[in-house]
Amino acid sequence: MSDPMTVLVTGAGGFVGAEVTARLTAAGHTVLALLHHNTELVRNNGRKLTPGPGTLTRITGDITRPGLGMTDDDRRLAAIADRIVHCAAVTDFGLPDEHYDRLNVEGTRHVLDLALAVRTPLVHLSTAYVCGERDGTAREDELDVGQRPGSGYEKSKLAAETLARTAAADGLPVTVVRPSIVTGAGRTGRVRDFKTIYPVLRVLTRGLVRTVPGHYDAVLDLVPVDRVADLVTEATLRARVAGCRTLHAVGYELTLRDFSDVLAEYPCFQVPRFVPPSAFSAQALPDGERPYYNRVISLYDTYFRRRVHFDDTRAAAFIGRPAPTGARPYLRRLLDHCLATGYLGPAPRRLPAAAVRPDGSTHR
Amino acid sequence: MILTEDQLQDLLDKALAALPYGTEWAVALEGSLAEGFGNPSSDIDFLFLGRCEDDLPTMPSLLFVDGRRVEIRTRSVRQIADQFRAVEEGAERPGRLSEDLLNRCQRLLHSHPLRGHALVEEVKAMLPAERFGRITADWWAHRARQSLRQAIALVCLDESDEAVGWTRAGLLQTVKSWAAARGETYLEPKWLSLQLDRAGHPDVRDRYWQLDTTAPAPGAAFAPGAAAVSGSVPALGGASASDAAAGPGSVPASGAAPAPSPTPVPDTAAPEPGTVTAPSASPPPGAAPAPRSVPASRGVPAVAAAPAPGGVPAAGAAAEPDAVPAPVPAPASNAVAPAPAAVPAPVAAPASSAPASDAVLAPGAVTDPSGTPAPDAVRDHLTACLGFAADLGIAGVPWRPERLIVERVAGVTTWQTGERVHVIRCRRDVFVLGDDAGAVWRSLVLGRPLPRVLAQAKDTGVADPGPLLAAFLRHGLIRLAWKGGGTVIPSLPLSAPPGPLTPPPSTAQPLLSVHGAAVSGPRAIDLMPLPADRFAAAAMALVWSNVVVENAVEDVTGALRRGQWRVAELTARRAVHAALRGLLSAHGVHPLPADPGLVRRLDLLPPAIRPIGARAGDLLGRGVGSAEQGDTLLAALRAFIGQVRGAVGADSFPLSFDSAHTWRATLQLGYDWLRIGAHLDAQLPIEEARDLLAGHGTAPRPALERHQDP
Ligand SMILES: NC(=O)c1ccc[n+]([C@@H]2O[C@H](COP(=O)([O-])OP(=O)(O)OC[C@H]3O[C@@H](n4cnc5c(N)ncnc54)[C@H](OP(=O)(O)O)[C@@H]3O)[C@@H](O)[C@H]2O)c1
């Protein structure tokens, strides 16, 4: 084991942050967990995180505020951190741009200020989709190549990563980890929060929207949360080896055709018809479908168009194993888990309105 | 043995005189005669054993000696050793152990030496009889479990007749397992009565015959199509299938339990040695078991008395060697009251005490139309047989339907076009489901216990969903796994290997519409008479021909308006060809003939369609030289398209372009079909369709432009 370190983790209560925190404390390191609204640390398997052998110290803060809104005591504590892992972000889609700017761009600026103050090596969570709306191979060493971001979220993540790169150019050791779409555990398909792709699957498999603009050869890259957490943890502990580089945390490439074929294996699932975006009109959707399209599916339209492949040569070499294979079996594991929990499957007679957010996701 | 040693030696000499065998062979008599069974008409089976190195032919020589059929097999010692080794190796997975292999070993081990006694004994010693008895007992036990689990499932699914069939199969396999453990390893069931007489436990024997003879007789439920997969069978109007099943000889499904008969049924079923009247193996699934001469109710009390609750399994109770952990845990919410393994008395448990919601979970408690649970002879008989099996040491078959998990079958996919549900099996066979069958299919959440799946199916409002689920099972569209026991694969000895059923293909004409395949009724599960890829390709071609016809007619109109006579001529031909392609596609013709052959190939279609060919020929030959001729052509073209539509139905050939809405609906059906086509890598009608699918292109330009929404 490497020498015990102290690591400040922002967004430690989040989907990725909690798993990173668990791995770091399990490896004997001390984690200063920066928590925001949600002060509970729950692992992906749904159980409360029990730290150890390393210790866990909870800190309350807000990345939108300078100094992350920490108390003086906490700031002193954070100043001795050996590493910072920056997971906090707003990851919901469809919010106003100001929101993303404040959280993802300004928030990152504040984290960078903190890191720059004592030159604390930083691991910054970006997204593979900073590549924007494009086809072909996106490489780890590319950043701003004049791409068109697919959403306000992507735009903000591109801006944030650009800030981190600038700090790196100024000598701050920064490793950028870019997950694709983070989904359930690789082996079990289990997932803590049903967000991002999950509400999309729910709306589509229930037949709430039956016609979706997209290309059958568009690719969605789903990465198991454990793979992301492993990579982030490694990048944190081996910051010197990781150097100032960018690592694609990517997983299983699934085309819409894969989705269509696998969904068809489930008798109770409706399989959407994908139509060329040029032939699609939201106005022409039946009245019952349109609201679901507008609220959920339209936010992900861009993913149904991109035929992008994320090259992960560096990440694979760094972590010592290539991205996993067996995309369809993985998708089945995800779907089976959703069915077992009742998240997917025939709609219950009456949905408990309070439990479901407008977009159908179930954040904690 | 019914033949003396001298008679046997004499038969052998005569056989040897007829065949070019040398004297170096050891010879043994095997088969029913050697094992003390048989009758004067039984075959004589000689096994010749040699030490040679070569593999000897597997096919027996056949000859007739003194009017008897004599079969001679030859085997080398090495071949025998290989057989025994294969049996030992396969013992751990009795589900995979071949019946033929077991039979070969059994016959040798119980053979009667006639020459070269030392070699025969040496060979027999390679697999001790006791060990072989254990292997055979496990082999039968495995089969018994499968059959009884299948029976449990079928009871739940209201498939009473088949449930009885599999119960009897399981019963027989149970007692064969028990007998094998006592050295009675003769595989075929035909001498069972003698085997049981010899096995020396009259109590077990009598109880077996008791249970066998008291199997409920098939009732009215067994009628072709009563599995309710055919649309022609009316729903049972709320009455349960078992109500309808109560035929002569079966216990009434409602009303009081039959009064126990004070005298146990005497064992009249055991035949005299030498008479081949022993009960045959259970009937194949779907076949009606022969009506029993003993009233179904008579044996019940005797049965009820037999299984001791908590009966200690016999020593060496077979664990389940093929057990595979069930992939899906039973959700805690599945509140099933498990019946004890050995159900003490089938008639003793008053079903009326069960909560109403248990009706589906405890299928014995069939609810009659008035809502009163009634005892069910089929389930009672099954639970009695389960008790018997438990008492004989066959673990793993309690009455616990919730242990049956409905599982996915690899390669089965569901595709809906419009409202029509198609299920494709192994990327090859297309089943089209009627509305009720489709609704039940759509309710399936796989990986869940059968009772829960059945409850969900009932929630669809479709009457009697059980038989529909049973049909899905039979067709191999879903499978059942026993929690901790792997996939349930019931099989009968000496019968075809188990496998999914393939019904005769649909004869519907026309076969296809743009909305989906034709179905014969609401509960239909019709098999398409063409393979999946051609099915999808034909359907896509049909949709496409609709698009082209419409486009071409508009183009004719435009050309005539501008006085472009030759253009009008050509586009009219295009429309005719497209309509003919649609006509052929709707009947499942694929690939399509080239345009010059289209008219002639209408001879492939039903005779009523053929006059369309003459009309098409006429249209294709017409020229346009004036506005008048042009108008006539257009009118004739419209009439022709109307005729095609009339012949195949507006469903196959909708008038879909009169509004943006209907145009869009047609296009969507096209996308639905493309989705299936993509799954099957089917041939797409034209390049544009390929583009549509890959998403690189756009919809047919002129059509889209004309029909853009405002
Ligand atoms: N999930 C994905 O599919 C995905 C894909 C690519 C990249 N990423 C990136 O990976 C990182 C982690 O994502 P995730 O899925 O773990 O996100 P998540 O579950 O939404 O967690 C985000 C965390 O940030 C915290 N946070 C929000 N606003 C904050 C504020 N003002 N101050 C401090 N903390 C705040 C949240 O805490 P509260 O809940 O208490 O507000 C939450 O714990 C993010 O940078 C994300 O952009 C995620």
TrEMBL record, chain A:
Residues 9-231 form the Thioester reductase (TE) domain. SUPFAM superfamilies: NAD(P)-binding Rossmann-fold domains. GO terms for molecular function: alcohol-forming very long-chain fatty acyl-CoA reductase activity. The lineage of its organism: Bacteria, Bacillati, Actinomycetota, Actinomycetes, Kitasatosporales. PANTHER family: MALE STERILITY PROTEIN 2-RELATED (PTHR11011). This is Thioester reductase (TE) domain-containing protein. It holds the Pfam family NAD_binding_4.
